[in-house]
Amino acid sequence: MNESYITVHGYVVAAPVIRKVGEHDVANFRIGVTPRKLERSSGEWRDAETQWYAVSAWRSLGTNVARSLRKGDPVIVQGRLSARTWVNAQHAEVVAHDIEATLVGHDLRRGVTTFAKMAPEAPGEALPAEPAQEQSAEMPPQTSPETSPEPVAQSPRQAAVRSDWSLPPHESPDWAGAA
Predict the structure, then answer these.
(1) What confidence score (pLDDT) does residue 115 get?
(2) Predicted structure pTM score
């Protein structure tokens, strides 16, 4: 199999849109990647031309992408790269680059995030759409085995969202440009 895999670091330019294809979910979103180059003559960093990628994330990755990403989020996307060519309304040939994502995550060089592990869904029971409650961003105090409380049994619904380290509600930065 001769496929091209790529890893890109960029910003989400529009909120992901999720749709059904057959019986599977797919989330589609676009990212913008602006490489920076050092001009040796002046010693200054300059932005190169922005590259645009359409990203598709299938199945549970797509569901999690739609629940997690917002416009302006810094992301790292890894997946299979493909190119499409077509003629636009101005009769110019256009090449678009698409990534079928295998991995998507927030770029933690640019900020912080929280992780909520998805519990297996019990038959007839849906997972909650959003975390149950927001808490402060402080880490819980460290406990020793002697002072830690007894574990409490949790239902699959309660185990689906880990809210012991939460951040304030997400806000998109105002610099998040449109495509």
Answers:
(1) 86
(2) 0.64
